[in-house]
Write a structure and sequence with these properties.
The structure is a homodimer. Chain A is of the alpha+beta class and about 325 residues long. Chain A contains 7 helices and 12 strands. In chain A, the strands form 2 sheets. A 6-stranded mixed beta sheet of chain A has the order 3-4-2-1-12-11. A 6-stranded mixed beta sheet of chain A has the order 5-6-7-8-10-9. The chains hardly touch. The first copy, chain A, binds a DNA duplex (9 and 9 nucleotides) through loops.
Chain lengths: ~325, ~325
DNA sequence: CCTTTCACG
DNA sequence: CGTGCAAGG
């Protein structure tokens, strides 16, 4: 658009927050995905907004007590031929994980790693479920200050570290923006670089940032909203993209508009008033192996939709 | 039964808690009710366990989202030809009453008096809805110490005071038993006597006591349960029956077993493991005018069922 | 078990 | 709006 061009032509002293790298293009649709490969490795990622609530909805939907279909997360993984499932906002307490595992009916041979919030019960929390046993797993980023909320779980596979993360929300009134940007984002990036020194990294999860104006339905109105502040976007740009990580969805579809989160309020999902907060980022060494990064915007059950990554073998 | 006879023959030093006045008889059924009168005045009373939740259930049931039928409280009043509806445990805040009124669609000409808890939001609370405008209404019993929880609302009608009450539960571990028996019960009885000096009284509501062994499914196992302690039963006996009030249901059916409350836990209602906690009591002067005191045990929507009183004109 | 408030999103 | 928790019953 001419507006964007006009702005870009005039360099300003005022720091410009990360701008779209391409003019706004069409709405992304699953039909734009590349054809499947013969052999691949697939990872699925989903902010479930409460795993017990999701499983309850799955049950109710199956019994016809709900209009819409809600897939069992493992059925979804099977359907997507994913061997790894990353969950965020599981909102479990440690003592609920074994019950949740039962209800999940994790197939024989699968492995699960849970990281529950220790500070606040039923808050945050992440998990990695995988068919293959990881070479190693770890919870947190190795810093007391940041590891009380169950936000990171890492699994080591032969070719890469898989980091599943639920980044702290900057909160109502941006109460936690300073913590988020100046402490969390920095320490987390340092953690990722530490891993990358050993092996390439696949990072997924709810990174709680819509990186550019393409990634949110109402950019102008959300400059002071958690997840779209200039500070959070600049931090994403500097700490992650600047460190060489590739935003797989954006790399594949430079101008496409697509969201992964729609607030429960105001019928946001029906009106597609969404945000792209959930991501797959990979080390640049891994970027050539990314065949397909995609969303499943029609999958219900949470205020976020699942997303998938297909890696060439 | 011979056991009861044997016990009664041997007077003991140990104080016996209120005993059934009659041997346990058959289960009470609505079919035992006397035939209707040509002219009467009818009062309905219901602990709704949250008025907003009840109205939501009514809606859901109407939309077929629930198995069982749940009547709108005013439809129930109409069906029972009651001109007065007493509600307990409405769990409303003052600021929600006008919304609730709208949802209730109170017919033109009806009057409503609400008494919401001021101490704790969404706790306790009582209301009287009536076709006839009361000569006067009042909230509480005129004692600061007891009037913060919205437990009593009184409406004056030409022939009697109608007192609608939700008596304080003695609580888990009988934490509040002392307050209940030694303060509340006494002050409340004094309040009733004060009214009675002016006009006969009809008292209804959740009095939170099963007066005798006939009034609870498992008397032996509940001697230390709130609502069936010897203290609460003795207090009911002394302060209310001893003051001349007549337990209308028991007077009409001396040996019948019937409950008005079934805890939500353990399928208590399906198994009829209940308590008779909700009552109509009348001043002895009014007793001859009581034609019919009855329960509506099949009416769902709360853990208590509604009950009715039919007075001869 | 079920409903309320509350904190968080 | 919806989740999970806590208190109350």
């Amino acid at each position: 658009g001419s507006k964007t061009a006009g702005k870009a032509a005039k360099p300003k002293a005022k720091r410009a927050p990360a701008k779209p790298k391409a003019p706004a293009g069409p709405a992304w649709e699953p039909s734009m995905r590349p054809p499947p490969l013969g052999e691949d490795a697939r990872i699925l990622s989903w902010n479930v907004a409460g795993l017990r609530a999701l499983l309850k909805k799955v049950k109710e939907a199956a019994e016809g007590k709900r209009e819409e279909h809600i897939p069992h997360p493992l059925a979804l993984a099977e359907q997507e031929r994913a061997d790894v499932l990353c969950l965020q906002e599981i909102k479990l307490q440690d003592e609920h994980c074994s019950d949740a595992l039962k209800e999940l009916r994790l197939p024989d041979g699968w492995h699960a790693t849970w990281n529950c919030s220790q500070n606040k019960k039923g808050y945050s929390g992440t998990a990695i479920l995988s068919r293959e046993e990881p070479l190693s797993v770890s919870c947190g980023i190795g810093m007391e200050d940041h590891d009380g909320e169950g936000r990171v779980v890492t699994a080591e596979f032969p070719d890469f570290f898989l980091v599943n993360c639920y980044v702290p929300n900057s909160g109502e009134g941006l109460k936690r923006l300073d913590y988020r940007v100046n402490q969390w984002d920095k320490e987390f990036a340092a953690y990722l670089k530490g891993l990358e020194a050993r092996k390439p990294v696949v990072l997924t999860g709810d990174l709680n940032v819509a990186p550019t104006e393409l990634d949110i339905h109402n950019p102008k109105g959300n400059l002071k909203s958690a997840g779209f502040t200039p500070e959070e976007r600049a931090s994403f740009q500097a700490n992650l993209l600047g460190a060489g990580f590739v935003d797989c969805f954006r790399a594949q579809y430079p101008g496409a508009v697509a969201y992964t989160y729609w607030g429960y309020r105001f019928n946001a999902r029906a009106n597609n008033k969404g945000w792209r907060l959930d991501h797959f980022l990979v080390s640049s060494a891994l970027a050539p192996r990314v065949h397909d990064c995609y969303h499943l915007p029609h999958v219900m059950g949470s205020d976020h939709c699942p997303l998938g990554l297909v890696l060439k073998l």
